[in-house]
Amino acid sequence: MSTSNQPLKGKTALITGSTSGIGLGMARALGGAGANLVLNGFGDATAIAALQKELAAQFGVRVQYHGADMSKPAEIEAMMAWVEKEMGGTDILVNNAGIQHVAPIEEFPVAKWDAIIAINLSSSFHTIRCVMPSMRAKNWGRIINVSSAHGLVASPQKVAYISAKHGLIGLTKTVALETARTGITCNAICPGWVLTPLVQKQIDDRAAKEGKSSRDAAEELLGEKQPSLQFVTPEELGALALFMCSDAAREVRGVAWNMDGGWVAQ
Ligand code: NAD
Q1: Taking residues 145-164, what's their average pLDDT?
Q2: Is 119 in the pocket of ligand 1 (CB under 6 A)?
Q3: Please, which residues have CB within 8 angstroms of residue 76's CB and are 6 or more apart in sequence?
Q4: What is the pTM of this model?
Q5: What's the rounded mean pLDDT across residues 135-152?
Q6: Is the CB–ligand 1 distance for residue 75 below 6 Å?
Q7: Catalytic residues
Q8: pLDDT tens for residues 87-126?
Q9: Cys-Cys crosslink for 113: which of 82, 126, 160, 240, Cβ 3.0 to 4.6 Å?
Q10: 203 C-alpha vs ligand 1 centroid, how far in Å?
């Protein structure tokens, strides 16, 4: 990597679930460092095309989009092959796509369990197994798995999410060991509460259920878990991802790095 202000110039970063929230924050950070971007995720086609244009103009990088549904292995395989052909391979892989569902285990819909395990855990197995041959051939790669504070500790009513996020940390450690003697690193980032659509829905549900304002519900959510009482931001998580892509992070391998306002220190 050069020491210019675009240290990732010439690299390609694929960020799953980057049409929104944390994934978009990571895409902005990596694009700002000069990486060409492949976006993925759901959303309005016109809005996604506008986002591609905006990022390309802002950072002077190539910005592509692939709409693979991360719950479907065949679509993931097709996306990884497409990136290989179109962009010369994925140098930086950010496994970020994720969904949530909140219910006690005896009421937890089986279809939601299957979807959360597929999107929040199995999709990373598929992207990593597909990307590994080309990363090994280049002897360079950065794999960042977006887990959660809920990958380190549990809370009630989120059995599928917490199982998937704990599993993702196991996957991270295993891949880190299998690549330990190479220029490929694999690490997890474990955010606390970040105010994205995924969390806004939980705040809105709580506000509706308890007859509170959205602001009060958000304060309660933070108060229960996050000692700083501040949301973590996608920009801050993007900066951590950028560090993990740097030469200085060459020997950061297999970590589950929490950025969570003190959540798991308790
Ligand atoms: P978000 O809802 O803003 O973004 C989720 C992204 O994933 C979107 O781009 C969406 O289109 C995409 N996505 C969902 N299902 C998909 C599918 N089947 N195929 C492809 N893309 C799909 O949520 P977010 O808060 O930015 O979450 C991003 C990641 O961060 C998730 O893995 C989430 O578990 C994790 N996380 C979030 C928080 C938080 O507080 N927001 C905390 C810890 C971890």
Answers
A1: 98
A2: yes
A3: 68, 70, 123, 126, 127, 130
A4: 0.97
A5: 98
A6: no
A7: 161
A8: 999 999 999 999 999 999 999 999 999 999 999 999 999 9
A9: 160
A10: 16
